[in-house]
Amino acid sequence: xxxxxxxxxxxxxxxxxxxxxxxxxxxxxxxxxxxxxxxxxxxxxxxxxxxxxxxxxxxxxxxxxxxxxxxxxxxxxxxxxxxxxxxxxxxxxxxxxxxxxxxxxxxxxxxxxxxxxxxxxxxxxxxxxxxxxxxxxxxxxxxxxxxxxxxxxxxxxxxxxxxxxxxxxxxxxxxxxxxxxxxxxxxxxxxxxxxxxxxxxxxxxxxxxxxxxxxxxxxxxxxxx
Length: 225
Ligand code: GLN
Fold this sequence. Notes:
Elements: E1 4-11, H1 22-34, E2 37-44, E3 57-60, H2 65-75, H3 79-87, E4 92-95, H4 97-101, E5 105-107, E6 113-115, E7 122-125, E8 132-140, E9 143-151, E10 154-157, E11 167-171, E12 181-182, E13 184-186, E14 189-192, H5 202-223
Helix pairs in contact: 1-5
GO molecular function, one term: glutaminase activity
Active site: 96, 195
Binding site for substrate: 131
């Protein structure tokens, strides 16, 4: 039997890939291969056409402020397809700058406010006193995660009844220095400040790989009419 092809969209891979984030996609491809699936990863970059429902998984990595400002000018075109994909319970992992993009806006350390996708009720602000940088450790529903963070943005939820934190901090900052919470969960979306890459934490990687296989089976069966 031919191995089945899982399709992954890596949003702006050439611009959003700080601190080893592209390793997340490589780890997923490895785990999916173990389960009998080949993967095809498409870099969805500037000016490209994109329909999220052609994919079984969306990945959005971290970026520096300049790259985020470039992506912001292009990504608005894809707001609806990304929102529909998320609302349809499909899996997505967003790291740092990619996570910030799901919210309303991101204030850079240089004083610029970048308008983001405004899909989820969160926003990211800047305060001059410190950059959040260093090792992190936190508890999640799938067990402990150890990673690395490096961000100036402080993320806050605007509707705590809609979003859940991804983890509770043991070491490091996570979303901001005030709440001791790391990242965000909404449906099958995880947002996180964790680089390293985060999916070197096999517990999280395996949980996401399982969700991708479910999404893949749904996509393939909905294409057979
Ligand atoms: N530029 C953003 C910040 O500093 C995101 C950084 C990142 O993705 N590592 O908050």
